[in-house]
């Protein structure tokens, strides 16, 4: 049994919140921890591939808040379709030099009760940081990177499948979106609150 799975298996099943940012979770680590995961309502962790997210959500049927930091170094893998009916908050810190991986995630998932979605761009070296402790990349650092455009079409399709339940959409530092894209979300969801980090304004 992997060390991280063995450590989690020793935690009380009454836990409702869990933060694990190191080492990175692999898809094989989850099945050995499923008794605890089944009771969680809040989870923050670092993972090595987005393909693991549907499997993780399947093992966490009561999850209302999920925060993930993702380090993607492998080739793009197909992501299994999945609908999670209780998730209300999803925050993703991702290296948007590999935005096609995030597009694949939005293509696969549905969240009929999702209220908050936040995305931010990180360096691969930041994957083990807690989401709220991440330091925004500086403008010159972002300009020097091959940051890919935000997967607008895939998110829009995901929101359609999720019956437009979203209330707040947050684009944190380094996420490339356009005025037209953000206006498009509001066209579909007039009550939507779109929040743009000041660091994003340099890339609009």
TrEMBL record:
It comes from the Eukaryota. InterPro entries: LRR_dom_sf. This is Uncharacterized protein. It comes from Suillus placidus. The lineage of its organism: Eukaryota, Fungi, Dikarya, Basidiomycota, Agaricomycotina.
């Amino acid at each position: 049994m992997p060390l991280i799975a063995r450590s989690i298996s020793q935690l009380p099943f009454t836990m409702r919140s869990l933060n694990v940012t190191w080492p990175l979770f692999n898809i094989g680590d989850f099945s050995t921890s499923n008794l605890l995961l089944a009771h969680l309502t809040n989870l923050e962790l670092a993972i090595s591939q987005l393909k693991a997210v549907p499997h993780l959500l399947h093992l966490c049927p009561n999850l209302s808040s999920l925060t993930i930091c993702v380090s993607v170094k492998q080739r793009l893998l197909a992501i299994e379709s999945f609908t999670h009916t209780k998730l209300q908050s999803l925050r993703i810190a991702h290296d948007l030099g590999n935005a096609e991986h995030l597009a694949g995630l939005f293509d696969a998932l549905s969240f009929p009760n999702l209220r908050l979605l936040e995305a931010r761009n990180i360096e691969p070296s930041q994957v083990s940081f807690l989401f709220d402790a991440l330091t925004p990349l500086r403008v010159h650092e972002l300009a020097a990177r091959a940051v890919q455009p935000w997967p607008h079409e895939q998110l829009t399709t995901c929101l359609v499948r999720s019956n437009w339940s979203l209330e707040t959409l947050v684009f944190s530092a380094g996420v490339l979106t356009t005025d037209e894209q953000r206006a498009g979300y509001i066209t579909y969801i007039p009550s939507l609150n779109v929040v743009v980090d000041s660091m994003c304004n340099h890339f609009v």
